[in-house]
Amino acid sequence: MIPLWSTWAEPRFFGPTFLRIGAINELYVWDEVSVAPFTVEVWKDGASKPLLAARGFSVNRPLPVLGAAKKPLLWAAALVCPEVLEAPGPVKVRFLTSKGELLHETPSQLMPRNFPVEEIPLSPEMTRLRAKPDPRKDREAVAIWAVYQRFEPQFHWPGGRFLLPVSPIFPSSAHFGDVRHYQYADGTSSRDYHRGTDFAVPVGTPVQAPAPGTVVLVSDRMLTGITVVLEHAPGVYSVFFHLSKANVKVGQKVKAAERLALSGATGLATGPHLHWEVRSNGVPVDPLDLVTDGLLDTNSVSAVISSIERVIH
Ligand SMILES: [Zn+2]
Question: How far is the CA of 30 from the centre of ligand 1 (A)?
């Protein structure tokens, strides 16, 4: 129940005017009382189904008393992540109840973003590994996809900036979103994009947790070699490929900077390096954004919400 003395009548919503492609875009709902479950959909004009949908989750961390609120505000977030190959243009962001009723709609834009194109010739062995159908490869793809789809709708981590998984003395050797034109040994080719950030590290370099999380997968996979997946937030996962050794077990909770593994060159790797990928709602997003901007940082969220509250009152 909302107390009678409050001028606060209903939840409020924030969806950004511009949505970044290949990135986590944070949307918020806040209220004096707990925020009911909701989902967010992004629609292009004239489309028959949404471009993407994301579930909201409550954040267990009240904000200060802001604007007309009489007490600390409770809030929830949804993370919206347009995929790298998505075309830019105008969209509508819709907040919906769990029954699909419209709560709030706001216009937005998918911002254009260009990614460089790289030509990658593959040896016959690499071609075989990459192109040949293999039941093990299929099983592993299904298993990791099931992990990316898991969504625990509570967020207890204090939020904030991610650390780099390796010492900053190592340069990144391939960037997120690079479009890759693979040329196979048999003369055929295919197009894909780089779903993570690579660091040029020698075999045996310590790999640390970029943020707190729970280890949800440790596996020796055909294409990605020794692989560790860490869950940070609802639907948000850090993924590490081509490791030489994992130092953690499934179910283990780790703190930021805790050692996860040693880097290597296992699986389909052209040489020793660390591949760090971040998935949100299954979509690959630029990991370095989380190092510079952070994820659900209380100060940033308070700043956005208090600026809206100032405009309203
Ligand atoms: Zn990579």
Answer: 38
Q: What is the pLDDT of residues 139-182, one digit of tens each?
A: 999 999 999 999 988 777 779 999 999 999 998 888 999 888 88
- Rounded Cα distance between 291 and 311, Å, is 30
pLDDT given for residue 56 in this prediction: 95
> What's the confidence (pLDDT) of residue 121?
87
The predicted-structure confidence for 260-279, as pLDDT tens digits, reads as follows 999 999 998 889 999 999 99
Residue 249 CA neighbour count, 13 Å, CB half: 0
Query: The CATH number of 117-281 is which of 2.70.70.10, 3.30.465.60, 2.130.10.10, 1.20.1250.20?
Result: 2.70.70.10
Q: What is the separation of C-alpha 307 from the centre of its chain, rounded to a whole number of angstroms?
A: 26
Between the CA of 21 and the centroid of ligand 1 the distance, in Å, is: 19
* Å from CA of 27 to ligand 1 middle: 29
Q: Where are the domains of the chain?
A: 12-114+295-312, 117-281
Residue 273 Cα to ligand 1 midpoint, Å, equals 8
List, edge to edge, every strand of the sheet that includes 102-110.
18-19, 102-110, 89-97, 38-44, 52-55
pLDDT of residue 116: 87
pLDDT mean across residues, the chain: 90
Distance 235 CA to ligand 1 centre (A): 21
Question: Which residues sit with Cβ closer than 5 angstroms to ligand 1, an ion?
Answer: 196, 198, 275
- Structural tokens at position 291: 């190092």
CA of 242 to the centre of ligand 1 (A): 9
Domain boundaries 12-114+295-312, CATH class: mainly beta
Q: What is the pTM of this model?
A: 0.90
